[in-house]
Specification:
Largest interface: A-B, 24 and 22 residues
Number of helices of chain A: 15
Distance between the termini of chain A: 23 Å
Number of strands of chain A: 10
Strand content of chain A: 5-15%
Radius of gyration of chain A: 31 Å
Distance between the termini of chain B: 26 Å
Radius of gyration of chain B: 19 Å
CATH class of the largest domain in chain A: Alpha Beta
CATH superfamily of the largest domain in chain A: Glutamyl-tRNA reductase, N-terminal domain
Order of helices and strands of chain A: EHHEEHEHHHHEHEHEHEHEEHHHH
Oligomer: heterodimer
Order of helices and strands of chain B: HHHHHHHHH
Number of domains of chain B: 2
Largest sheet of chain A: 6 strands, parallel
Structural class of chain B: mainly alpha
Largest sheet of chain B: none
Chain lengths: ~425, ~270
Amino acid sequence: MQLLLLGVNHRTAPVEVRETLFFGPEEARALLRQLRGDGLDQAMVLSTCNRTELYAFTSDPPAAEDRLRALVSRIKGADLLSPSPHRYTQGEGEAARHLFRVAAGLDSMVLGEMQILGQVKDAHALAREEGTGGVLLDRLLGSAVHAGKRARTETAISAGVVSVASAAVALAMKVFGDLSRGRVLVVGAGETGGLAARHFAEKQPSALWIVNRTRARADALAGEVQGASFPLSEIGDLLPQADVVVCATGAPGHLITGGAVRRAMGQRPHRPLVLVDLGVPRNVDPEGARQENVFLYSIDTLRAVADQNLARRQREVPRVEAIVEEECDRFLAWFRGLEATPVLRELRDHFERLRAEEVGKSLRQFAPHEQEQVDRLTRSLVNRLLHLPTTRLKALDLGSEAGLSRLHALRDLFALGGEPGEGKRMDGGT
Amino acid sequence: MDATIRLLNTMLPMLYALAVVAYAVDFFREDPLAARATRVLMETILVLHALFIGLRTALYEHVPLASAAEVMTTVAFALALVYLFVEWRSNVRTTGMFLLSFSFVFQTVSSAFITNRSFPGVLRSPLFALHTVTAVLGYTAFAASAVYGLLFLLLYHELKKSRFGIVYERLPPLEVLARMSLGAVAFGLVFLTVTVVCGALWAASEFPGFAKDPKFLLTVAVWTVYLAALLLHHGLHWTGRRTIAVSLVGFALLVFSFIAVRLWLASFHAFA
């Protein structure tokens, strides 16, 4: 039994290919059902906006790869997983290592982004629901998720924020702690303003106001983020009521002057005001920052925060790689310990050793011409004794609980090697 | 019992040192092991320290507030207790290093100099015991409030200057620090109120002229300033630097009252 990975991701394929290959939950279910029908009964689909990867345990990787390609082609109407620079295929050790790196956030578009951990868990849950879980896949996914959790808790791989918009939210949170009672005013409904509004909307502020020169765009963005829109002329009235103000327009002068900030603070003398200026040229007069309880941040400041955090995450990569290696090696040791061939070899060695010891003790009692006969006879006896167990061992389905438990029993009975994963943690961390 | 007390007296400074180290590692390195260790250590320390104080009280027949060294161990305990209460309420561990450093210093000095000194019989009254214990708890809460207030000002300064170093990364948000500081003020004010009431009831019979005592007057002033800070916060919705500034004025007055009574003013409190 081997692990096969077939997929594309943000490093290998452009967005057009990735979006075509994206499997929503229902499509993924359909694919898993067909895979099970095709004999691939331990398989999983991990599909996000940055990757679509198919993992399957199979005893015949080339044939399994062909089946996966054919099924995906049938569902998507295009053979996007044929050999090309976009797709990658990996076997056993590399495939497992890849999944562990994905779960640890090392393969994410934004280094250390941990949403992927939840997506890996969801993909696993989907496989189990569709009956393509199984012992091997459960163990693989459990170990990968455990590696991801360790990466997140033992290192700073996902610490801090690494985009300008999320840095703006983080700074506001550093002042207020909780934005659910705060009011956020976003001036500018363009790309940057929209991004900031969406990030702040995630924190569910008590009010999210969108102001834009073109009212229709403000309406559209407000509708999207469940906020309220206002014309640009009302900015002066909204300013004293807002706790966070994000400006992201291309207006040539200062939209918010030092005087406007002073007047606003006069109406709210004891409440802090966070001003985030993402405009170029600047939309907020730096004079405004002189007021007590006013915190003003420009786009350069936010970028510096994001870069600082990203650099910090990058410094953590070697530590996360070490965790991935450790967990992956542990999984592979367990996985390889399941193979029947080494057990068979050990079993035969065990019997041969016993035979040789016993023959060696008695051989001198025989005449030289009889010694050869004794040796041949005992070898033949051992072969006969081991014939049936060997045949049955080779026929075991090691992907099933029953097969695994028989293998374990055999190893236990004859004290062969060590228990797979003996002395090691068996929990999967799911 | 005496051997247990001596053992605890030696162990406590070491345990506080360990706690400070664990909180420091958690602060600078965000080490999950250290984070788990902090809680276990704190619970162990509080149990052992409470046992230490209880055993001393039982064996020497007085609450350990009769000498500077005794006061110090009680303050160290109270500070740790207040800190753990605030940590439990706010779920923020990053200020432990700052507050528990004081507990460590107080306990170390106390362990080095503590003796089994006898003290005036007049101080054996239960009212006096309540008065002194609540005073220590109240003053400790005000000390914690001052530490949180100073951390607030430090973070405020960093945020104003757009400096995003370890202070920015590890300290809790400004409003949380303000809440912690004012929470400690409320905690302290309740205890100080009990202190003043018990003290007045007790002193009314022992020291009839206590109302003109400088320590009493200064304590009432401290109480008033802290009450003002809370009223400004809850009544006039003051937040931020101004409320913190008022509470720090209260703490400065409190420290002054201690120094003044010992160095310059004649007060019946001078025996403590």
